Fold this sequence. Notes:
One of its GO terms (cellular component) is cytoplasm. The protein is mainly alpha-helical. Helix content is 68%, strand content 0%.
Amino acid sequence: MDPFMVLLHEISTGLNEEELKSLKFLCHDKVGRKKLEKITQGTELFTILLEQNEISPDNMDFLSGLLKHLKRENLLEKLKQFQEQGGEPDQLDPKERQRMDVAYDYICDNVGKEWKMFVRKLGVRDSKIDGIIDANPSNMQEQILKSLKAWEKMKGGKASAKDLVAALRSSRLNLIADGLEEKLKKYGSSMYQ
Length: 193
């Protein structure tokens, strides 16, 4: 199943009748009146918007705007998670996900100006780093986190906290690597499995 279609279905089932009416009103400049009158479910509206290239897995700005107007934070959160995961479900097992989240927090709090060198060691390309910086110009922690998420997406289910420690050491950030290893000991000796 296409993850984007699953997301649209989840959003559609989360809408009540009044919210669907509001969405139809907000789309009156994108969808003809006759088509709008026939729509009885969110999936029908989303199908039309897909056909007209108003929404897509790579362009969810219009959909995000619609959900913001409805003030549906829970649906916006689903959309945000989809975007962060690149449309893919989390491929890490829950224990590794927990270790990775701890590692991300620790790294974002402790890696300073050397962060670009560190994420390059992970294999994140300069063009990706530059795009992340442009999207988050004044928030270094967000730049670091987005770069780590890009690395994780690139690695798929093979990303691990062990890789992060190794990249820290390779970047000569040994004190941070030591601190991270100490922090991760709380999550079991299976860290390096």
